[in-house]
Amino acid sequence: MSKVLEVTDLQKSFTLHEFNGKRILGCESVSFSVHPGEFVGITGKSGSGKSTMLKCLYRTYLPTSGEIWFASELFGRINLASTTERQISTIRRREIGYVSQFLNVLPRVTAQDVVANSLVETGIDEETSHQRAASILSHFQISKNLWDAYPQNFSGGEKLRLNLAKEMVKQPRLLLLDEPTASLDNASKELVKEILNELKQSGTSMVGIFHDLDFMEQTVDTHYKMNQGVLGGVTV
């Protein structure tokens, strides 16, 4: 089976110039692959390098070394670690989603527009985008009287559900998840699990980092443990 993502010897370090160039290691020797429809879960203590690795995959961080090969439908097989900012920007809009614990959206944009705009950016017309946005907002049980409200006033759980809806509605080729259930109650977690399973069935590949081991074990196909920046301990 072809690989959607293939990571080889990924390393990210940070140089603290204010401390005489002291070098801090984020992650190193990270190698793994993800197949179509596969969900890879990564666990580890806080500070073990999980978020650093995930941000390298999304190219929020530029890797220090290593390769991140992505099977793009737009550009073919492409190394995310070294491709141009323009290509990365296009891939983020069209093919790779990223869900963090925090919602970062423009002010004075309503909740429904936040979700719909993520579809418009992929080339879908506005009417269809708003219809799909309404459907997924309903699924995540975000009250209809909040759809035309500004998310800055939402609770933490509502913001996270909106963030999930914004990325999942695109049905991306690859979805990256940073603690996707961090502030959700059990009922909301079930809604997330349903969508994740639907995405897997439709062929979306996923990489997620977790502290919620119970949730992770119900959703992932392959589990890696991260320790001091090094990935290992695969469980299928």
UniProtKB/TrEMBL annotation:
Is the keyword Lyase in the record?
Answer: yes
Residue ranges annotated for the ABC transporter domain, each copy included: 5-236
**Which InterPro entries does the UniProt record give?**
AAA+_ATPase, ABC_transporter-like_ATP-bd, CP_lyase_PhnL, P-loop_NTPase
One GO MF annotation is: lyase activity
Tell me the leader sequence span: none
Question: What keywords are annotated for this sequence in UniProt?
Answer: ATP-binding, Lyase, Nucleotide-binding
To which protein family does this belong?
Belongs to the ABC transporter superfamily.
Protein name in UniProt: Phosphonate C-P lyase system protein PhnL
- Tell me what organism the protein belongs to: Alicyclobacillus fastidiosus
* Name of the gene encoding the protein in the UniProt record: phnL
